[in-house]
Design brief:
- By secondary structure, this protein is α/β, with parallel strands linked by helices.
- 42% of the residues lie in helices and 19% in strands.
- It folds into 2 domains: 138 residues, ATPase, nucleotide binding domain (Nucleotidyltransferase, domain 5), CATH 3.30.420.40; 165 residues, Nucleotidyltransferase, domain 5 (2-Layer Sandwich), CATH 3.30.420.
- It has 11 helices and 11 strands.
- Strand 7 and strand 8 form a beta hairpin.
- The protein binds 5'-O-[(R)-(carboxyoxy)(hydroxy)phosphoryl]adenosine and zinc ion.
- Zinc ion (ZN) binds next to loops.
Length: 339
């Protein structure tokens, strides 16, 4: 089955063509980072307008790069939520129209649930082991920090999530206050490589045994308080130490709870996805923990960690195979029960 995936839940317009729920024939992502950078965060109205301009060219490019036409597409999967309502509606309206005029089956996908499906993706001709069920999934993005337990395809339950900021949001807010631009996760990652992670002791909240929720807003405030307490702006060396110490606090919380989730559910497979999963220190610490604890770790390559439509098509294919079909009344779900 060849599925066209469409994603527009936040600030990336994405389309992908995926075969049999795994083989990526194409994955096109049009990022709006440049549009939102001057505001230091996503401006919903600007994001919606940008999706309107990008959606047709992005889908066109995805078809072209895959070497297919609409006649080769068997079904459409589109992100239904959670996300910004104006943004979701652009992808949904486009997908519903295309489904209607071409007579193609349609399915609506939960964006958060779709992130771990990035771990199933392979390039054409690539051999890679897929995660086997059951597994625990840690989804760490700009919008969410969530632990899920996957019993089987399309069957999951929430184990824990952030009670305030997401980890990506913490990276972006700290980057902003350090003057590193937006989005700042990758900049902190680079800077931290040359810093001392033990230089400053930042808080690691909610590390009470068994608690699978996260909290990052106190950490962000602790960094702000630390910077304000300095005599003037931090010099380069100090900046590197702040970046490394902050990053280590986030990574500690994430790695600890990823392990606890696996232990609590008794699974041997851990999937980690979302934009923050491209962080080099996080990946290294996860590898280390997995080898010590005897866990099998699945982290998609960075291009499938950040938002993309290939993961939407992958989950969409599983839903279509199980008969989860949507009609013209498919509506956006900006908030999704439980998330
Ligand atoms: O999954 P994603 O592309 O979008 C959302 O669904 O939100 O995640 C974006 C987030 C941003 O907060 C960005 O700063 C963060 O991922 N990010 C990183 C790195 N690359 C992207 N955070 C830490 N280290 C990185 N290398
Ligand atoms: Zn995402």
């Amino acid at each position: 089955m060849i599925v066209l995936g469409i994603e527009s839940s936040c600030d990336d317009t994405a389309a992908a063509v995926v075969e049999n729920g795994r083989i990526v024939l194409s994955s096109v992502v049009s990022s709006q980072d440049r549009i939102h950078a001057r505001y230091g965060g996503v401006v919903p109205e600007l994001a919606s307008r940008s999706h309107i301009e990008a959606i047709v060219p992005v889908v066109d490019e995805a078809l072209q790069r895959a070497g297919v036409t609409l006649a080769d597409i068997d079904a459409i999967a589109v992100t239904q939520g959670p996300g910004l309502v104006g943004c979701l509606l652009i992808g949904l309206s486009f997908a519903k129209s295309l489904s209607y005029v071409r007579g193609l089956p349609l399915t609506g996908v939960n964006h958060i649930e779709s992130h771990p499906y990035a771990a199933f993706l392979v390039e054409k001709g690539e051999e890679k082991e897929a995660p086997s069920f059951p597994f625990a999934a840690l989804i760490v993005s700009g919008g969410h920090t969530t632990l899920l337990y996957f019993e089987d395809y399309t069957k999951y339950r929430i184990l824990g999530q952030t009670i305030d900021d997401s980890a990506g949001e913490a990276f972006d807010k700290v980057a902003k206050l350090l003057g590193l631009g937006y989005p700042g996760g990758a900049a902190i990652d680079r800077l931290a490589k040359e810093g001392d992670a033990a230089a400053i002791s930042f808080p690691r909240p909610l590390l009470g045994k068994g608690n699978l929720d996260f909290s990052f807003s106190g950490l962000k405030t602790a960094v702000l308080t630390h910077v304000r307490g300095l005599n003037g702006p931090p010099d380069e060396a100090r900046l590197k130490n702040i970046a490394a110490s902050f990053q280590e606090a986030v990574v500690d919380s994430l790695v600890t709870k990823g392990l606890w989730a696996a232990k609590e559910t008794g699974v041997k497979n851990l999937v980690v996805a979302g934009g923050v999963a491209s962080n080099s220190r996080f990946r290294a610490r996860l590898e280390q923990m997995a080898s010590t604890e005897g866990l099998k770790l699945f982290i998609p390559p960075p291009k499938y960690c950040t938002d993309n439509a290939a993961m939407v098509a992958a989950l969409g294919t599983c839903q279509l195979e199980r008969g989860f079909l949507a009609g013209p009344d498919l509506n956006a779900q900006p908030t999704w029960e439980g998330f």
